[in-house]
Amino acid sequence: MSTDADAQLNSESESPAPARRTGRTAERRIDRRSILRPGDGSMVIFDGVTKRYGEDVVGLDNISLSIDAGEFVFLVGPSGSGKSTFIRLLIKEMDASEGTVIVGGRDLGKMGRSKVPYLRRGIGCVFQDFKLLPGRTIYENVAYALEVTGDAPKSIRRKVPEILALTGLSDKSDRLPNELSGGEQQRVSIARAFVNHPRLLIADEPTGNLDPDTSIGIMQLLYRINRTGTTVVMATHDRDLVDKMQMRVIALEGGKLVRDERSASYATVEP
Length: 271
Ligand SMILES: Nc1ncnc2c1ncn2[C@@H]1O[C@H](COP(=O)(O)OP(=O)(O)OP(=O)(O)O)[C@@H](O)[C@H]1O
Ligand SMILES: [Mg+2]
Known about the structure:
Bound molecules: adenosine-5'-triphosphate, magnesium ion
Number of strands: 10
Largest sheet: 6 strands, mixed
Shape: globular
Mean pLDDT: 87
Helix content: 25-40%
CATH architecture of one domain: 3-Layer(aba) Sandwich
Number of helices: 10
């Protein structure tokens, strides 16, 4: 990524899109688009959250924690510990069996299905397998995220090149996803997740398919996005990345919260 792109990303405020607009009409439009309002400074609150799959399987077991707006949080733990379950509850892909999940001031248990698309507009999602549309170019993949939220063509033509530059993809915009490396494809999926400047970005094993050097590049991109004020929650198995970053680490095991430390490593540091 170029220095210019870094500077641009670093200079963004918490809500970059509205900050660039002027006039009351534009502000009203943004208000309607993002329903996340972390009134007390908390972006995510889990209060006694349990998620059961069927009768016997417990995905999450009585989790209580909060994540402040603007934080960067790693979610770690062995396979099956509940990381993806945590993330799926955040985007209301499913509801908690017990307890309360609040995202951006909204109690997701009380939110009707019709409001879910508005919730998701405020949340960018990045996954291990990129989830790009195979028959569409990189430009079209990113533009699609704006089309589905009803952005005007003129605004799309402005925002897509901007985000492709920020993610170092300008020269790849006409290619198809399978013509890119894994790291480049993940950059596209981050560009797509961030093009709406969401207040919350969640990433489930975003470096799971990437080599260590490429993973560091992806990590740096997510970190820069976090510096713009976007809250980032990243589930990962990658010990080296977590140890390098020294950010907050929430550790799960068997669905239980076993550790929540600021500026931590992947494994518990002995005193
Ligand atoms: N759709 C489902 N139906 C039944 N059980 C499920 C379902 N999804 C997850 N589980 C179970 O819930 C538990 C937590 O799974 P989850 O996918 O949240 O773990 P994870 O920490 O993301 O694991 P991994 O690191 O392998 O991605 C596991 O025991 C899993 O088998
Ligand atoms: Mg998972």
